[in-house]
Give the backbone structure.
Amino acid sequence: MELFFAVILCAFGLVIAKQIYLNSLNKKFIEKHKNCKYIHAHDGSGMAVDVDNRKVALFYKKNEVYYNYEDIREWSYNIESAGRIYGGGVAAAQANTANSIAAIKNSGFFVKVRDIDNPLWRISFPHRKNKMKAQL
């Protein structure tokens, strides 16, 4: 029983440490690009638009790349929500969790660029449910 609680405590600690790390990356990116007209960073990804120099900075974790406006091929957004499975106990709960995680990963602002190494960037935004909780 003690081993179970130790494992749970370690897992919880790792989740908290990851969130602290991602928040620090977000703050560094925002601080670095505070002079840009448009800027957004969330969950270790973000973008900043420098209108005067016609450049866009995109970042994901430690990877940050600058693109000229001409290098942006396409942009789009997707908001996906997960279906729910009712009944079934633990199996249904696991399926619901997996569906929710997949929906969050498939949601965001997507930018296709002229770049062989990084042709598609995903900028995450707070999930609507989490955003509403934060506003309460």
The chain has one domain: 2-135. The helical segments are 2-32, 90-106, 128-135. The first strand starts at residue 38 and ends at 42. The chain has a mean pLDDT of 84.
